[in-house]
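Hi Q.,

Before the meeting this afternoon, I wanted you to have the zinc ion prediction in hand. No need to reply - just skim if you have a minute. The sequence and ligand are here:
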Amino acid sequence: MAQPFPYTYYTCDCFDSNNPLASKRGPQPLEEDERDFDPHNPRSNYTLYPLEQLLYCEDCQQIRCPRCVAEETINWYCPSCLFEVPSSVVKSDGNRCTRNCFNCPVCTSPMTTNSLDQHGDGPPYILACPYCKWSTVEIGIEVEKGTGISAQLAKIANGGHPIPSLKERDKERERKKELESRRREKDAMSPTQDSPTTDTERDSTPSHDDLFYNLSSFYKSQIDAQTPSNPFSSAEINFSSPSAYSRIMSMYSSSSRKNKRSKPAPARDAASILEGLSIHDPSNDAQAIERIKREGWSTTLQPSQKLAQPDPTIRFSDELRPLATLLCTKRSKRCRSCRHILSKPENKITSTRYKIKLLALNHIPRISMRALPSQYTQSSSAPSATATPFAYDALKPGIPTHFLLHISNPLFDPIRVTLATPSTTPGKVQSRVTILCPQFEVGANTDVWDDALASSLSPIKHSAQDAGQIEAGKIWDRGRNWTSVVVEVVPGFLDGVPGLASSIGPGAAPPTSTNDGRKRSGTGALRDVGEDDGDLNYDEDVLEIPVFVRLEFEADVNAEERGLGDSRGSKGEREKREEAFWVVVGLGRIVEI
Amino acid sequence: MSTSDRSQGRTRGTTPRIADLASTPETPRTPPGRSNSSIYGSPGGFRVEDEYVVLEVGARFVRGGLPGETTPRCTLTFGPDEQRRAADYRQWDPEHHHSRRKRKRDQAWGQDHELYRLDINQVDLGLVEDKFERAMREAFNKYFVLDTKPRRIMLSLPPKLPHALMSTILDVLFGNFQAPSITLLSAPVLATVAAGLRSALVVDIGWAETLITAVCEYREVNEQRTTRATKLLSEHMANILNAALDDEPGAGDPKAEISFEEADEVLTRVGWCKSKPRSNRRTMYFAARTSPILEEFEDAVESPEPTINIPFPKHTPPTELTIPFTSLAKPAESALFAPDMALNEFDDQELPLHHLIYRALLSLPMDVRRLCMSRIIITGGGSQLPGLKTRLLAELEALVSQKGWDPVRNYGSASARHEQLMNQKRENLELRNQEGEDKVSESLDPETPLPPGLQNPEEDFIDAKLSHLALKNVPSASLVGGVIRGVDTLGAWAGASLVAHHRIKGIVEIERERYLQHGLQGATREKEVSVVQQRQSMGPGIGMGRGGGDRASWTLGVWA
Ligand SMILES: [Zn+2]
Ligand SMILES: [Zn+2]
Ligand SMILES: [Zn+2]
Ligand SMILES: [Zn+2]
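Predicted structure with the ligand bound:
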């Protein structure tokens, strides 16, 4: 369930028809009509879409969902300041707004830049969340200018310490390394006890970024040292031995052959923080524990807050950083199998219009279900002044209820529709479903004034006198380009009334559907699985009816196929077409009796 | 040293010890010493600037980003909210946050937060594909926001991921995201890279299992597994919280049954682990040794007892639980260390972490062990628990001082070398003496020889090299060995980012066309040979070089 009842979802079966790689993983392919679609299978969540979200490839004559289109970025922009970002900047500066747009790290609302000045218009400035009131004051950050916040923030760590730029980092690293090597030389002259890490580096715990850049520079120097001008000159190590031992040897072996060339320094581990080596420091653990003990739950971060952070391993609220707003993109969509463009938005950032958008709803009939108004079902009821709206979220188990299934045709040709549905819905709660008239025609989507002329499809008059006259095999009603039929539904019992399954008769489907690839072997042996205590899973009380829809119609031969010098492509040439897909109708929620 | 090691191999026949377990075929999918997922560069070719995206796939998350960036651009999870249908917006409904999600029938703890499970019999591969494809679409469309050029993919995977899962992941990346090539790198090797090391003992406390991998020169040489990992940890946390909620005054009649999300949040926010090993008879028994663990073996008692208030808005009625702070350290105790059980009561796949680390070290050839014990990398989701790393290292230290080898210090001088030899003699003696103590492995075949990869060469060569090296310009800090030492890592994703940024080629590189034709079957079986042939002209040692030309064949390396 996702939308208000009753709703209709459409499947795109690209996952087993269009990806040649994926098809081998699917279940044994069955005839389309034989395979029941199970809306309660977790996989169904990945194949069901509202009709409005689906595209249609006219060349492949198939529905296209987000999964079977290929997307191409047209442009990048910040959804907050609507600034269009050139692709070169995206490449160099990343996927976030580099101006002033930030989202609150606590509640994700857009943040505002506020002045702390008494008059409210001068430095210093802070970022503040108008919704939850979090501000950069809590992490000790103020900036001097009210614009270019992003650039300023990049230079300030929490607490106000400066963050060095990459260049500054490199310079500082070189300076420290110089010091280090001078000290080592001194140590070599007067050897003392070996101290693996130099204590002077311990002054402050290096940040994740510090270590990363140190490591990166270390590897660069190692690679440079290992890549002499002629890369084939210094091959000494015999890697043909799988022995781990030989790899150690290689580590210590500068040369096993006589080689008069200048030997590169042996490859080695990073040896200090400056090279990215960080020895475990128990005091970090102790501090964290002490802090949790002292400051409690509220000082720690929610999982979702952490995940949104640049460094998701942080733990405490004073480590939060404001989140620069993620850029958005405008993308065109192509059919993955024939590469034709299915949708292309206008370039302009502020425009929400499309140059091309081939919507499925222009090609696929809209199918919906709603309760049959009660005056037609209850023969004695008074005219409907007092009729209460049908309670879709309180379907009564065991009570036969009538619904109208309505199909409207967007095509300019009449269609012949065949509907099929399993006689009992798949899943734990088994409801009985009968489509009283599974085969019928729906008129073409002609212009309105044609409607008056089309006498053959005049609406069927129903009156209260017809009550109880619902006839199998006959449509309920029709209009210019629509037809409705009656569906009888007996909602199942939530607690699985004993005997119900057997009373359903031979049409009863086994609870495991055929398109469920899950193998259940071995689950019984697991001691930690959820218990089958008869309780229902999330949404299992929702009555969803899978309906297999097959359309047949005659249409003009596709312009493209007809065209281009095909001389016999005479006007009005027709071809037979067929379209078939599953829909899932969410009728409502079943209540307990 | 070589002779001693060999004699150690021979004495195996007499009394089985923990050390023997790792080298026996008890874990058929982990033959030590034959893997080759190292990240050696190929001949110093000069290839065009290829552009990569960097992915790390784990059981419960995907991290994705671009090379050279310090952190991934996104960490995507696989919870129920990520599995909703299109246009199902109920997760944004405030009501939704007040209802507790019930575990599905037939589902294991936390299963609806998993991308995959390792037991292939319980996996709906189609669903794995669905989840992964959706996550990757989000990664590309929302976080990578790249231009249309197809990107090569640098992919970190757990070693020995079942082939069915691997193909599922590769199918999506090649099929739906048009990757021209995918380089597979093993997560422990990348964690080693991201620690600045070439060899390490990587303890990856993951979701369903903790995986201990000895990495030597970027190659996996030994692997141990235990189910004592984050999943068990959060399950134990749930038990403790349920019990505490039931103890609250006015607790309702139905027993508290908090959801996975609640337990996981408590665990990651305020869960912790006592840093000091619990005192036990065995460590006290060895009191004669000078070991830091003896300084404190009782928890100091604080008064009043510190407590933590944890809100449970989804409980009926919503409540705020006040729980002793020490209770929040209990799950780590029982799930990861299980101190109340004797070693021989454990199944092989549920050894406590410290014993497993010890076993991993013990099963290594002495010189690899010497390196690895000083390069212990504790990583993975579970390692975030504050205090856990310190505790594991302390427990290991205690185990070593109780059972095993002497720390060997002071390399780099003639006297140190002498001391090392002496220590190793002593160690060997001890190992033999101690063989009578552990009865764990009696059922195992005592005749199984050390795999060739782990056998010693004959020369006493390393020592000479070492002393030689010490005079050269190699910082002694990079040669530390023989002492228990923990090294931090930036994690597998950062390792992959570094590897891709420096254009280091991986051994397992799969070209799109070949994969589309043959799938994983396209990998050559003679992986060791093919790798060597491609690599014989490589520069020494570093194991990294700038990438080379295309390869005619490819291998599955450690995943074969
Ligand atoms: Zn599709
Ligand atoms: Zn902006
Ligand atoms: Zn906020
Ligand atoms: Zn197409």
